[in-house]
Amino acid sequence: MITENKPELLAPCGSMESLTAALKAGCDAVYFGGRLFSARQNAENFSHENILEAVSLCHRRGVRLYQAINIAVFDSELPALADEIKFACEAGVDGLIIQDRAVEKIVRDSCPTMPIHASTQMTLHFSDGVLWASEHGYSRVVLSRELSRDIIRKLSTLGVETEIFVHGALCMSVSGQCFLSAMIGSRSANRGLCAGACRLPFSSADKSAGKPKDKYALSLKDLTLIDDAEELKSIGASSLKIEGRMKRPEYVSAATGEFRAALDGSDYDYDLLRSAFSRSGFTDGYFSGRRDSSMFGARSYEDVTDMTASLTQIHEKYKSEYQRFSLSMTLTVRRGENSILKATDGTETVTITGTIPQEAINRPLSVEAAVSQLGKLGGTLYRAGEITAEIEPGLMLPLSELNSLRRQAVEALDNLRQERLTVRKPFTPANYLHEITKKPKKPVSYWVSVENLSQLEKIDCERVIIPLSLANEYISSGRDPKKAIVTPPRFTLHSEKVEADLVKAKSLGFESAMATNSGYVRMLPRLGFGAIGGFGLNITNSLSAHEYERDGLTALTLSFELKTSQLSSIRTTVPKGAVLYGKLPLMVMANCPIKAETGCKACSHTLTDRTGTTFPVNCHMLGGYDYNELLNSKTLYLPDKQSYFDIDFGVLMFTDESPEEVRAVLEDYRAGVSRRDGKAFTNGLYFRGVI
Questions:
Q1: CA atoms within 13 Å, Cβ hemisphere of 573
Q2: For 189-193, 573-577, 624-628, 641-645, which range has the lowest pLDDT when averaged over its residues?
Q3: Which runs of consecutive H residues, i.e. helices, occur in 264-335?
Q4: Is 618 exposed, middle or buried (CB count within 10 Å of its CB: 0-12, 13-18, 19+)?
Q5: Bridge partner residues of 222 (DSSP)
Q6: Which pLDDT belongs to residue 622?
Q7: CA distance 113 to 454
């Protein structure tokens, strides 16, 4: 059910201290990671003992808590993954935020009552993606950060909860599609160990000594939508998410508390929010639809000093317990009878029995004094609601007794709430993956992916992969559409146009298309295509592969973050393949860094980092496809190492190569011989892997 007009305020917790900060600042829910399988492995994170304590602390306050089990998982880790899910289910966690479909399968088979939320790492950003998640049992979809208010409003009407980011860091790459950190230093963003390489100097303009100087072409300002709080309450999103599990508790306090005030219609302190953490200020660029240079910014010395100066103010402002509930009480004091306090928080009601009142010697207990004393709720979760008292004249009840009655009532209500909200879900282990007979190894077939059709002129190969935008030209050249696989854009803000282009391609005779994200897993079969899983699905284990097979994918391209041994061990019943050649795409970018820095007319199609290394930028903005790709500086090339791969097909990705180069590379792979200067090439991650 979609919450209307009162979205959940969701706070980040990277430690128990941050959890306490979020609770005191007034969050409705928190998300955290365990010591394993969390996309923020460098946060302190939560031990199993911490999780049990967090469940208690949150549920006493009526706060929901979601565990992020949201990294790509290897086959060797599946038993430990099942154990982590089992603990979360039995501990009473309210939901799991997931990226890897292995989690989906384990939950479905062993604990179907556990809600699962599709992480932003799943790159769901158009209607088919949201509907795909809903049809697969996801109760919530965390939408990509790059969406405008109109798209969010539309996607929030599809019958499944949506969650949107409203504050915190913005990655340059669309989440789930960044491999920069992995390729540079084996620290995978999909494994929770992103090194933040995009925050280092990059430039397309400064060529002095081949290195950028104080330019940060891949660094975006932090997001805040706090000025849009009223609109956020009606946009349809069920949850408003603050990023920041890696940040200190004071940041969590300030971000949560100021958003709490804004959503409640109270004054908020924008300057305090900025001083708690920003990168030269904030942006709302994606939400407002202004994808331009104003979105870019880096952390400055002033940002750091502002944060230091604000810590005392933040501590003082959020030192007390947030009073979440209105507490109504009725006190009854009669001669010869035990005093009675009846209390309710609007959901639960308790009755507390006290002592028998005494006859007053000097000053009898008045109604006014009793109401005043019972209303002293500082340090509790409650603010005073309606408080009444019925006191027979001439009786005395010590103020200490009233305090005791109030304390007992508060504790009883807290306990009832915790008991009601802590739902421990039974977990039944299952055989998650039935044995799949290992297929006999066959010669690898080569699928050639090109950016322009001239690259096909001098070759003949088993399959060709072309951009969807070249479908008409491909047919006009007289080529066979049944041999081709069309690839829709990896990211789009205009899915209706993409669907129309796919319908046209189908009418031209194309039968196969590449599912570059889970939205296409639904869209392509719906339009009559045979869908092939692309590397952007981040398939890193047999369970995930199995789930995509159940969706009807006819072949699967596995993640290029796998080592050859990991890749070869993945069991499938459909053909599996891997990217074997090309400048690997390291980022999908919805905001062009070159356009922001120099403008399109001066486009160099490259970015240079602080070491002088040049990275090509592949532009897909033409035709309304809304994104660019940052490519690796070196080309993946390993024709003489194919014996390490147990796969059915290899994808050779060509970007700027000439027809002659395409032919030469294909011949190298068919011969299994390296005939190029190795200095300009890389083995990728296939032999060193990621952590």
A1: 14
A2: 624-628
A3: 270-276, 285-288, 301-317
A4: middle
A5: 282
A6: 66
A7: 53
Own/partner long-range contacts of 83-88 (Cβ < 8 Å, ≥24 apart): 84/34, 84/36, 84/37, 85/110, 85/111, 85/114, 85/427, 86/110, 86/111, 86/427, 86/429, 87/34, 87/48, 87/51, 88/34, 88/51, 88/114
What distance lies between CA 175 and its chain's CA centroid? 7
Neighbours of 308 (CB within 10 A): 9
Helices (H) and strands (E) in the chain, counts: 21, 31
Q: Are 593 and 627 in contact, with CB atoms under 8 Å apart?
A: no
HSE value, Cβ hemisphere, 13 Å, CA-based, for 641: 13
Residue 426's SS3 state is coil
Amino acid at 686: Y
Task: Specify whether the CB–CB gap between 112 and 426 falls below 8 A.
Answer: no
Q: CA 126 to CA 115: how far, in whole Å?
A: 22
Q: Is the dihedral of CA 287, 288, 291, 292 positive or negative?
A: negative
Amino acid, res. 153: R
**Confidence category of residue 287, pLDDT binned at 50, 70, 90:** very high
Q: Are 505 and 497 in contact (CB under 8 A)?
A: no
State how far the Cα of 48 lies from the Cα of 313, in Å rounded to an integer: 33
The Cα 6–Cα 154 span in angstroms is 18
Model pLDDT for residues 72-102, shown as the tens digit of each residue: 999 999 999 999 999 999 999 999 999 999 9
Longest CA pairwise span in the chain (Å): 110
- The number of beta carbons lying within 10 Å of the beta carbon of residue 504 is 13
Beta bridge partner(s), residue 224: 167
Which residues neighbour 93 within 8 Å (Cβ) at sequence distance 6 or greater? 51, 55, 65, 66, 67, 114
What phi and psi, each to the nearest 5 degrees, are found at residue 533? -70, 130
Cα–Cα distance for residue pair 147/37, rounded to 1 Å: 27
* Residue with the two structure tokens 């006290």: 354
Give the span between the Cα atoms of 594 and 354, in whole angstroms.
73
Q: What is the pLDDT of residues 100-140, one digit of tens each?
A: 999 999 999 999 999 999 999 999 999 999 999 999 999 99
Q: Is the separation of the CB atoms in 593 and 457 below 8 Å?
A: no
362 contacts: CB under 8 Å, gap ≥ 6: none
Structure tokens at 679: 């200095």
Nearest to 127 by CA among 102, 98, 164, 153: 153
Which one-letter DSSP state was computed for residue 541?
S
Cβ–Cβ under 8 Å, residues 471 and 498: no
Q: Look at phi and psi of residue 219 and say left if phi exceeds 0, alpha if psi is from -120 to 50, else beta.
A: beta
Phi, psi values for residue 349, rounded to 5°: -130, 135
